[in-house]
Amino acid sequence: MRFVTTFHLWPFLDTLVSYLAAFVLGTLIGAERQYRQRNAGLRTNALVAIGAAAFVDLGQRLGGDVESIRIIAYVVSGIGFLGAGVIMKEGLNVRGLNTAATLWCSAAVGAIAGSDMLAEAVLLTGIVLLANTALRPLVDAINRIPVEGRSVEATYLVTLTTTEQQAQGLSDELVARLEAAQLPVGEVRIEPRAGGAADVVATLTSTIVDAVELDQVTDAMQALPGVRHVTWQGRTHD
Q: Distance between CA 187 and CA 174 in Å, rounded?
């Protein structure tokens, strides 16, 4: 049995400590994510930390520090694919970036624990928890600052509802009126709807603009024949 020749008590105990540390620290990070009902919660973060610790510890046991460093590089790149799985794009909004970043940090905690630097692993865990909890009130305070007082970019959607036959002509008219108002149009698409209707959606990317300018354009378009409804909405982003 090869197990008899490969098993050594003290290295085994060292591995056990690394695994347990990764499990406990990953669980602490995951508990905060689970409490906030995120996609990657307690079990995911714990498993990511344990997996990273296992790979790094295995590399160190078999090939020493040089091999463990090589495995750490693979862990860093590999965890990116897992993080991409929790990032979701809904229209112009992107969700899950913070959860993906937390998974990346959990892998770092596991890799550090697998390298037998337990104090550093505990320190990083505390910093991750601090970032996900203590910074939240600061984020909320910044978000409450009026948009008019900030220098930000925003994406605006102007949506016009008409018939499929008139959609193209009204799309050209909408673009012309927006550009005449010096509102640059980034994209225009026509989305068919049930009953022969269609939505003309114009996307504007610009700095914050006066709502009156968009209201003037939408009011003018609303008065045109064949236009059933015109509305606009804006979303700020980084």
A: 12
**The two structure tokens encoding residue 75:** 């862990």
Cα separation, 224 vs 220, whole angstroms: 7
Instruction: Let me know whether 131 and 229 are in one domain.
Output: no
Encode pLDDT of 3-60 as tens digits: 677 777 888 899 999 999 999 999 999 998 888 777 778 999 999 999 999 999 999 8
Co-location of 96 and 180 in the same domain: no
Give the contacts of 196 (CB within 8 A, at least 6 positions apart).
163, 164
- State phi, psi for 40 to the nearest 5 degrees: -100, 100
In terms of domains, do 15 and 131 share one? yes
Domain that holds residue 123: 8-143
Report how many domains make up the chain. 2
The span from the first CA to the last CA of the chain, in angstroms, equals 59
Strands 93-95 and 88-90: antiparallel
pTM of the model: 0.60
Handedness of CA 216, 217, 219, 225 (dihedral sign): positive
d(CA 115, CA 118): 8
Residues forming beta bridges with residue 163, ordered by sequence position: 197
